[in-house]
Amino acid sequence: MSFHANKATCLSSTSTSFRIVSAELRAKARPHRGIADVHKKHSMFSRAVTEANQAETDAASNAAARPVYPFSAIIGQEEMKFAAIMNIIDPNIGGIMVMGDRGTGKSTTVRSLVDLLPLIDVVKDDPFMSSPTDPNLMSPDILKLFREGSPLETTRVPINMVDLPLGATEDRVCGTIDIEKALTEGTKAFEPGLLAKANRGILYVDEVNLLDDHLVDVLLDSAASGWNTVEREGISICHPARFILIGSGNPEEGELRPQLLDRFGMHAQIKTVKLPEERVRVVEERTAFDTSPNEFRKKYESEQRAIISKLDTARELLPSVQVPMEIRLKISQVCSELDVDGLRGDLVTTRASRAAAAYRGANEVTDEDVYSVVTLCLRHRLRKDPMATIDEGTKVLEVFSSVFGYDSEE
User: Fold this and answer.
1) Do residues 113 and 91 lie in contact, with contact meaning Cβ atoms separated by under 8 Å?
2) pLDDT, tens digit (0-9, with 9 covering 90-100), for 49-90
3) Are 91 and 84 in contact (CB under 8 A)?
4) Beta-carbon neighbour count of residue 232 at 10 Å?
């Protein structure tokens, strides 16, 4: 064999050995690269989740910063405005269901309540809006600290108004496992949902009659018990979810199930304005607000302050308002003669009557206070057939007039 042939054979063998060694090294290095890739993916996912949460926080801040239409500037809708004021004075009334024609400003009126809501004490940085003093309104972690006697840092914030969109998932409403902590820390943690955010606040559902049945069931459970229980992915948690439930909808698109309808303390009906003068005024006011919101709001500052002052006074007066036994008996007699199921009608009517008395600055409930709220509290509790429509309130007023000794014409 020649020298050149031997040299070629040696080079070929060396090259083959080099490829084998390189392959072995790559094989050994591959697991480390895989772990690095996993950590890289986790890091990327963590950043994505953080950025998404930050974007959601920024969006919420921007939404809060956007000017809302002044409550005092709303024309008409007296039933809805009065029902809203009663619920702000006494949140235990149980919320409002607003049904009316489309384009009548139902959502605008609801969102205008933000300016009227009082400040409340909450535990700082707690996503459940926990009360620093009431154990029934504390999240599990805060309740544990409270029982241990640990100091709780508090702050005063406005009552939350949380929108529940029709397309929301059950996980977003109730809460679910925190994926970021599960992937980055390997721990099971709960990520609160909208019900946690709405605790001690207002939960608003636009087009509530179009809400999916499974979400309706969730709202029924939480509204009835005041608690949200989550059992999923190895997580078991129960936190307070006491909120004022406000829903709006168009009756042409369908009615609510009687079970959900009964959970609303009051029911207001909105009609389209018919007078041309009022319609023109509404259009002009809305145009002025859209053109210059801040200037428009300044025009109604004094009216807004007057309403807020009156509400503050009414809330302070409410605990001292008394309901005479004679009026209590008559309220129950009205509910009995209307064949209202259960006792929720009696309870809500009594509470709303006390709020009405407090709003006019009185210490005792009168017939006029009951008259002002009885239709709002009972008209939606008369429907036995799910396919039937809600009475305008004529039947309620007839029975009220009979029991309280008034002529129906009065």
Assistant:
1) no
2) 444 444 444 444 444 457 889 999 998 888 999 999 999 999
3) no
4) 14
Q: Report d(CA 152, CA 402) in Å as an integer.
A: 54
Residues 134 and 279 in one domain: yes
Helices 301-317 + 344-359 axis angle, to 10:
120
pLDDT the model gives residue 62:
43
Of 376, 387, 382, which is closest to residue 97 (Cα–Cα)? 376
Closest by CA position to 228, among listed 189, 264, 261, 196: 196
400 and 391 in contact (C-beta within 8 Å)?
A: no
The number of domains in the chain is 2
Residue 29 resides in a domain:
no
Which of 281, 315, 344, 383 is catalytic? The answer is 344
How far apart are alpha carbons 357 and 369 in whole angstroms?
6
- Dihedral sign for Cα 285, 290, 295, 296, please: positive
The CATH number of the domain holding residue 361 is 1.10.8.80
Give bridge partners of residue 135 from the DSSP assignment. none
Q: Which residue ranges of the chain lie beneath pLDDT 70?
A: 1-65, 181-183, 186-188, 233, 383-392, 407-410
Give the pLDDT confidence score for residue 55 in this predicted structure: 45
Residue 234 gets which letter from DSSP? T
Question: What sign for the dihedral angle of Cα 73, 75, 79, 80?
Answer: negative
What single DSSP character describes residue 235? E
Tell me whether residue 200 is one of the annotated catalytic residues. no
Sign of CA dihedral 239, 348, 161, 256: positive
pTM metric for this prediction: 0.77
Q: Which residues contact 317 (CB under 8 A, 6 or more apart)?
A: 358, 361, 363
